[in-house]
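Reviewer 2 asked us to include a model.

Predict the structure of this chain.
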Amino acid sequence: MADGDEIFDVVVIGAGIVGLATARALLAKRPALRLAVLEKEASPGTHQTGHNSGVLHSGIYYKPGSLKARLCTEGKRLLEQYAAEREIPFVACGKLIVALDGSELQRLEELHRRATENGVEGLRVLDGDELREVEPHATGTRALHAPRTGIIDYGAVTRAYAGDVEAAGGTILTGRAVRSFDPRSRELWIGTDTGALRARAVIACAGLQSDRVARLAGARPPVRIVPFRGDYYTLGRDTEGLVRGLVYPVPDPAFPFLGVHFTKRLDGSVVAGPNAVLALARERYRRAAVDLRDAVSALTYPGSWRFAARHVRTGAAEVHRDVSKRAFVRDMQRYVPSVRADDVTFGPTGIRAQALGRDGTLVDDFLIVGTERMMHVLNAPSPAATASLAIGEELAERALRDVITSS
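Predicted model (structure tokens):
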């Protein structure tokens, strides 16, 4: 097949959970669309989707009125309905957000206010005795209990989305990394590893590479993706019964990550983590992994240094946990004192694509920008997997209104 012989109305870049959800939403709204999803890896959902912790979020943390708040609440409802229809297992195991002492109570109250405004179902504030009725091995003075927070198999969800796309007539092309864009009079030529194809419009859901794809297309994204590696420890089979569901700390509002927490998984295992340390490789999952291009990108970006300067103490604690199992376990023991170092083994690991401004501010909401005939999802961290169906609907509606109709 000659370059450019593959012709589509829409190309979605990235076969992660957001890209596939967007593709299936487009095909549901416009069944006649010639649509392809390009994925540079050999199979969908390889990176952030494939390293997801599996939590089905309720919408507790997010600023009321934000895209995260709106799409998480709606996305959870849609995903639970979808999973039930497709017989994809999920469990509403519940989440406890635990205040250890009085210094955290005001922040816990603010979370309660946000969660209530966001429509989170079944919320209760528990005292120390009540929280131990939910999690007998946990400790704390007060907790916010969200009984409808759950766990799900996002790998199974992603495979189901891919099946939907293909059943609706879409094409998923793997092993097709995007190398160039050539805008022509009425179409875009997209250069890939195995030749060029043509499209009237492009929606880029490129995750860890989203800023690079945007720049490749001629956009000037206001942010750069700075990757943060998150490591977990897994509790042994003899001790996983110490945790029934999800046990979280009260997050520090000055730091954008949630801190070490416990997550029950569908197979009964329990993981604790993650920490959050700057990664020097966007798509490699070993602690010492370095990709020269990724390292230079992160370390020469002014936003990285400004962010680090604002969070010196917290960042140092994250690094200490990264190199010291003992320190990591001490953080676990603050919430579940019975955990011991010989009860846990290292892993798994994930990498979060976080959009960071030049001023060192982390983007706290989903970020979607458009260029002529193109749309770029530049920031879609957690709860993007939970919200995937709602994000897909949002992106499809925007694309049909602003991108595809004008192409």
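The longest helix spans residues 67-86. The chain has a mean pLDDT of 94. We have added this to the supplementary material.
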